[in-house]
Amino acid sequence: MTRLFDPFFWSPSLRRSLNWGITAFSVLVCLLVMPTRIPGMELLGVGPNWMLIWVVVWSVNRTAWEGAIAGLTLGLIQDAMTAPDPTHAFSLAIVGILTARLHKQRYIQEDFISVALIVFGMAVIAETVVALQFTLGSLSNPTGTYPTLGEIWLFHQQIALCSAILSSLWAPVIYYPLKRWWNLMETVEQAQLS
Amino acid sequence: MLTVRRWWGRRGLQVGLIALVLLIAWGLRQNQGGVIYELYRWLSLPFQSEQDTRSAALENATLREMQGRLLELESQNQQLRQLLDYSSEHTDGIVAPVIGRSADHWWQQIILGRGRSNGVEVGDIVSGTGGLVGRVTHVTPNTSRVLLITDPTSQVGVTISRTRVMGVLRGQAGNRAVMQFFEKEPNVQAGDTIATSSISQLFPAGIPIGQVESVDLRKSPAPEAVIELSSPIGYLEWVIVSENTTPQSESIESEMAE
Q1: Per-residue pLDDT of chain A (194 residues; tens, 9 = 90+)
Q2: Which of A28, A35, A73 lies closest to B103 in CB terms?
Q3: For residue B226, what is the domain's CATH number?
């Protein structure tokens, strides 16, 4: 009976599908938290950017390709939850690539503080990319319903700062359990291979 | 050929899984996240307040008096309309709980816990206690998404009730909105009430929106007024969804469906 709960006795296929399942479940949890505004979780009406936190946590120990694909996927899903134009896939894919490349430099370690710092920086970058997309839309279609340039960059200041502060504070909530799980899976895989 | 096959043997599963994940994400996007919002509503059901908080507010005596007067005026209006052969459909709205807010900071949206199965349709008008709140943009079987009038991409044709000066109301994120006038010298002062105008293509005329807080006549290219919205958009718990009777709303619906 205890073998059922010991990962070292799981068959590779069971382990792999459980790994996928847990990863997908964590994305689902992020998706479902996004529309809520729990008191203490918002600043000027802006909450943490859960999708961005997830993409950073995923990419921090993976290749740029994996980061880009995760960003693209979660961006498309976030489009589904808000409005598809301009797309979120672009900004999150950039975040995935940058986070994965950033880690190659040796002086950033993997702990809470550095993940929180990376999330802070990436939130600012992601919101800037979205603001640039809005700016392009506004310039190419001046009579459309896009906000004016002044408004866009005013919102950008508010949104980027609030989202960066809140996202970096809440990042460990996602980082810690996922990190533990992925580390465990890696250890088990090494043990089974050798 | 052999190298391709060997590569496929090694990477095939990975490529297949990535394609599957991307396909699911794309499908969700095309479906406008319907599945996620249905699940979200189901999970948030235990947290929704059982009692309609509006009923408590209605206990207020002055409100009752006002309601009585309104009823009187409505019946008078009805009689006068009958005399004039003026026909208009009047429907009672659906009371819907607000179960969520926008999943992104750039849009000002709310998620309602009522959907297609309760009679909500795309283009319906959403109002809270005090006035207009927004317009339904997406509907799933049990939830719907509302674009608020405070969203920067939302534009509503409005008019000053006192002087019939027309303008366009633009959202300013947060809880503010700005009214841009068409005239250079509009007759307007702080404290004037504003309502939707008859030139609005998305909303029926005459829905109250708010009060003029301050006026800036020197603003270029057009004079502007800051509007204090009468419904508490930041703290909405229940809203009323009513059918949109403007003739244009149907064409907009079909545009959105495309």
Answers
A1: 566 667 777 777 888 888 888 888 988 888 888 888 777 777 777 788 888 999 988 888 888 888 888 888 888 888 888 877 778 888 889 988 888 887 656 656 667 788 888 889 889 999 899 888 888 888 887 666 677 777 788 888 888 888 898 888 888 888 888 888 888 888 888 887 77
A2: A35
A3: 2.40.10.350
Q: Is B122 part of a structural domain of the chain?
A: no
Contact B171, B177 (CB under 8 A): yes
Q: With respect to residue B11, please indicate whether it lies within any of the assigned structural domains.
A: no
Contact A35 B100 (CB under 8 A): yes
Topology, domain A39-178: Arp2/3 complex 21 kDa subunit ARPC3 (1.10.1760)
Overall domain count for chain B = 1
Distance CA B155, CA B150 (A): 9
DSSP codes, chain A: -HHHH-GGGS-HHHHHHHHHHHHHHHHHHHHHHTT---TTS-BTTB---HHHHHHHHHHTTS-HHHHHHHHHHHHHHHHHHS-SSS-SHHHHHHHHHHHHHHTTSTT--SSHHHHHHHHHHHHHHHHHHHHHHHHHHHHH-TTSSSPPHHHHHHHHHHHHHHHHHHHHHHHHHHHHHHHHHHHHHHHHHHHHH-
Peptide bond into B141 cis (omega under 30): no
Count of all residues that appear for chain A in the document: 194
* Residue ranges covered by each domain of chain A: 39-178
Cβ atoms A156, A135 nearer than 8 A: no
Is B102 within the bounds of a domain? no
Residue B196: inside a domain: yes
Structural domain of B173: 155-233
d(CA A140, nearest CA chain B) in Å: 15
Instruction: Give residue ranges of B with CB < 8 Å to any A CB.
Output: 17-18, 21-22, 24-26, 28-33, 36-37, 39-40, 43-44, 99-107, 109, 111, 152-155, 170, 172-175, 234
Residues of B with Cβ-Cβ distance to A81 under 8 angstroms:
33, 36-37, 103-104
Cβ atoms A70, A96 nearer than 8 A: yes
ipTM tops the 0.95 cut:
no
